């Protein structure tokens, strides 16, 4: 029986999750108001690219001795670094500060990727003074005299809110409302702050700590929990599948309590490795046709899939469709539940529902766990290998397996690194992150830099191909500057290929790139 004190009250989550702000001013302006808020959220570092439109904002953020400005070589890398920071920090949120339009549009790709995986980012962009931005004057960084809202419009599709602070009177409410949307929706937000308002006096911040109502109505929560319990108890060989949203929305303890409650085989999608891989119920990853055929058999021979935070993109199902499996699938997403009989129940917060299920009458079902369990983990090196022999992929994987320790973070870039990660068994308290399925090549390098700054224990271990490395290589200079103790494995395939044997997704001269002296 789970320990009841470990289970949260089901309808409510309290924010901010980590700390109280110790930064105080006798008089606040909009910039120092934000500094107070960021510290209150548990943010210790913010990633920045300075420019003439955000100097005043940065000057005021720098007044907080508890916030560190981490400057990056470009805005895209700053956005990726913030993504990595948010994934592993205790605050589960990160901040990036960029210049007006040219900087924010450069960061847009990183923010879009964060949006695809419900990563909380606060993007702060400076902009010209209110009188200028509201005038007909053609301003530098703007594409035309009449289009000064290009970034605001671009961010609308990948954020929970895209706003510009218009006046000092409304600024505190606008900022708090936008930050709240970031927390509540688990999505990025974008805020433009004009130069003249960054240092304008405003009312002091009140504590942001509050109960966030996820709009889960008790009777709807009860309906979902009872429906899932009934379907589960009627099944014969159910399995539990974990997706990326499970780790971003739930404490690992609650995932393991749910698994132990259910007693069944537990498998993870490639981006959902959020249970101890030494756990007796863990049966590996489920990536049909790509890895772990024993685990795939466990899933495909079961009569019910309970999917927590799953994703069914073309990459997750390798260009096929999961719709034919809906008849045996319970899908629990961020704020809704889909049942095998076609019922769609919402609003139901994923954290509240999992807490309810842990305390429910769901019966343990152990039939799906094979005896013996499938062998998981590292490929053994070739028996013929000697120290003088050429390095092989098998021996490289074995070396990485020996290197990774508890509390480390494995960050895998798009491509071959995903396949390599499949053969690495994570030690206790270690975790693995993929930008899956957005797969923007080069993400892992700056994301690894950000995650290393966020971690209080362990190292970030980055797996990346030569093509991805060349896209974001400037992040290495940031690692050196800030003494980030990362480990980088570059898999040099001499181009955009899956391996050194010239296996490309599509053959052509565009696959070949310069062979750097790494």
Automatic annotation (TrEMBL):
Q: What is its EC number?
A: 4.1.1.1
- Gene Ontology CC annotation, any one: cytosol
| Reaction equation(s) it catalyzes | a 2-oxocarboxylate + H(+) = an aldehyde + CO2
Please give the cofactor(s) recorded in the UniProt entry for this protein.
thiamine diphosphate; Mg(2+)
Example of a GO biological process term: aromatic amino acid family catabolic process to alcohol via Ehrlich pathway
> Is Metal-binding set as a keyword in this record?
yes
Look at the named UniProt entry and state the broad enzyme category this protein falls under: lyase
Cofactor mode of binding and number, as noted: Binds 1 Mg(2+) per subunit.
Which segments constitute the Thiamine pyrophosphate enzyme TPP-binding domain?
421-507
Q: Which UniProt keywords apply?
A: Decarboxylase, Lyase, Magnesium, Metal-binding, Thiamine pyrophosphate
All copies of domain Thiamine pyrophosphate enzyme N-terminal TPP-binding, residue ranges: 29-140
Keyword Methyltransferase attached: no
Q: Name one GO molecular function term.
A: magnesium ion binding
Under the heading InterPro entries, the entry gives: DHS-like_NAD/FAD-binding_dom, PDC/IPDC-like, THDP-binding, Thiamin_PyroP_enz_cen_dom, Thiamin_PyroP_enz_TPP-bd_dom, TPP_enzyme_TPP-bd, TPP_PYR_PDC_IPDC-like
Q: Which residues form the Thiamine pyrophosphate enzyme central domain?
A: 233-339
Which residues hold Mg(2+)? 466, 493, 495
Q: Which family does it belong to?
A: Belongs to the TPP enzyme family.
Name this polypeptide is given: Pyruvate decarboxylase
């Amino acid at each position: 029986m789970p320990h009841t004190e470990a289970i949260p009250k089901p309808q409510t989550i309290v924010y901010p999750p980590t700390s109280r702000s110790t930064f105080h001013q006798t008089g606040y302006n909009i910039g120092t108001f934000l500094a107070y808020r960021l510290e209150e959220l548990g943010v210790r570092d913010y990633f920045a690219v300075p420019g003439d439109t955000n100097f005043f904002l940065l000057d005021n953020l720098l007044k907080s001795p508890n916030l560190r400005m981490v400057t990056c070589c470009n805005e895209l890398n700053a956005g990726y670094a913030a993504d990595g920071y948010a994934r592993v920090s205790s605050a589960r949120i990160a901040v990036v500060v960029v210049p007006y339009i040219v900087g924010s549009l450069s960061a847009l790709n990183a923010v879009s990727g964060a949006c695809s995986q419900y990563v909380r980012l606060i993007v702060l962009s400076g902009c010209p003074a209110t009188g200028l931005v509201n005038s007909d004057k053609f301003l530098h960084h703007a594409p035309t005299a009449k289009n000064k809202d290009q970034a605001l419009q671009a961010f609308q599709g990948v954020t929970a809110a895209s706003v510009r602070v218009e006046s000092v009177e409304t600024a505190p409410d606008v900022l708090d409302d936008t930050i709240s949307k970031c927390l509540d929706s688990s999505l990025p937000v974008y805020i433009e702050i004009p130069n003249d308002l960054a240092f304008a006096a405003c009312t002091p911040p009140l504590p942001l700590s509050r109960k966030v109502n996820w709009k889960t109505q008790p009777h709807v929560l009860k309906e979902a929990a009872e429906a899932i319990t009934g379907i589960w108890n009627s099944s014969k060989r159910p399995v539990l599948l974990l997706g990326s949203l499970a780790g971003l929305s739930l404490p690992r303890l609650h995932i393991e309590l749910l698994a132990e409650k259910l007693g069944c085989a537990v498998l993870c999608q490639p981006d959902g490795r959020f249970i101890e891989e030494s756990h007796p119920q863990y049966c590996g990853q489920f990536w049909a046709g790509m890895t772990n055929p024993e685990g795939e058999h466990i899933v495909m021979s079961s009569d019910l899939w309970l999917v927590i935070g799953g994703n069914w993109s073309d990459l997750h199902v390798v260009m096929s469709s999961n719709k034919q499996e809906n008849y045996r699938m319970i899908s629990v997403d961020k704020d809704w539940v889909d049942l095998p009989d076609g019922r769609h129940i919402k609003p139901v917060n994923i954290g509240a529902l999992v807490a309810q299920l842990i305390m429910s009458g769901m019966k343990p079902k152990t039939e799906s766990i094979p005896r013996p369990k499938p062998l998981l983990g590292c490929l053994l090196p070739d028996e013929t290998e000697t120290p003088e022999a050429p390095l092989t992929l098998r021996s490289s994987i074995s070396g990485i397996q020996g290197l990774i320790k508890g509390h480390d973070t494995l960050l895998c870039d798009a491509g071959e690194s995903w396949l390599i990660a499949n053969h690495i068994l994570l030690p206790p308290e270690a975790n693995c992150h993929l930008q899956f399925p957005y797969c923007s090549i080069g993400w892992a390098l700056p994301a690894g830099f950000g995650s290393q700054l966020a971690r209080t224990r362990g190292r970030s271990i980055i797996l990346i191909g030569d093509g991805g490395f060349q896209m974001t290589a400037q992040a290495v200079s940031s690692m050196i500057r800030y003494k980030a103790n990362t480990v980088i494995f570059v898999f040099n395939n001499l181009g955009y290929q899956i391996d050194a044997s010239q296996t490309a997704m599509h053959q052509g001269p565009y696959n070949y790139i310069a062979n750097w002296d790494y």
